[in-house]
Amino acid sequence: MSDQHPAPTPTQLGPLGRAAVLVAAFLGLFFDGMELGLMPVASLSVSRSLLGDAFTPTLGGDWFARFTAALMLGAAIGGILLGSLGDRIGRSRAMGVSILFYSVCAGLGGLATTQEQMLVLRFLVGLGVGGMWPNGIALVAESWPNASKATVSGVMAAGLNAGILMLSQLARAWPITPESWRWLFHLAAVPAALGVAVLLSLPESPAWLASRNRDRGDLRRAPLRALVSRRLLPTTLAAILVASIPMAGAWSASKWMIPWADKVAGMEHASYKAVTQGWWAAGSVIGSFLGAQLVGWLGRRVSYVAISIAATAATWAMFQLTEPLRPSFLPVVFVQGFVSTLFFGWLAVYLPELFPVEVRASGSGLAYNSGRFITAAGVLGSAWLFTSLGGDYPRVGSLLGLVYALGIAAIWLAPAGPSPTEFDDGGVQRVGR
Fold it and tell me: pTM here?
């Protein structure tokens, strides 16, 4: 697009434009969720297939951690770079690029012949996965300025976990085994069609278009530099802190339940790992939607503290009070999925409102995905802990689940809400003084 706009920039999209944005962003996050849920349910089967006789249960758990760390590292880098791209070339264009990246690279996973090839591809998938969230959330928030923020943010956050739920049901119907796993990766390439459609026809954010006409070139030309300026650095650091804790908890701790279920159930119950993921994802769809509502009911700080306490307790209970194949296991997994993903509905409301429109995708992407750098390190640390403890899934999960408790103190270092400053004509918050 050109930087010159002779015609007036519309302040709002029409009903069809807003509906198209909402549907496209929801689907982008839905397929994003399928990518996130793919390796937890397929990892041990992939490793058994590619490692052959060299496979051991402990080595399989170690490779699960490596695949997860690669995805998180790629998502951290992609979220920052593609979030910045969204502030430069537009939310919808950057979102289309993100969808193409994660779908094409995931599809190539079906051709992998070594663990190392798969590791590189999971990193590349992460680049697109990381870019989808900040651009999708920013695009929807700016295209629906008069809608209920909690409802719209909740729908977006639920889309991610609905994708994980759908993947679990596919894997339940067609069990993932060492002899049959490549089809799942080929299926993950299908969203490329959505990426092309978004690039070619999805409307752009009116707020972003309007921001290009304002004299705020310092933010527009160097959004990442603006985020570490004296004006925005305290906000940026606080946003990183509150986003990192749930991200680290989700991937360093609670995701160990799926390979644990796979190990306990064994080949006799090949679909049990998918059933486990399905129960978790069902809880997470509800939790990620209600997390956005919880912000309005309890306020930003109190709701974050309550979620931190509940997630710590539920994760400990999942790993210490039950185990796979027990009647109580799946209901506890559902509860853990529900409470731990309340965080992500909360973040969908909280993060975008902290940053001005010129750096909103960059700010949300940096905050959300910096947590993935920490998570990648945490996952590698959890792999070391897993090996050191002799492959003891319950001890690893319950110890690492304590990361959620850090949120009880961390939230008091963050702003209570958006700075009470003036707003521009589009209803977008300006930089606080």
Answer: 0.69
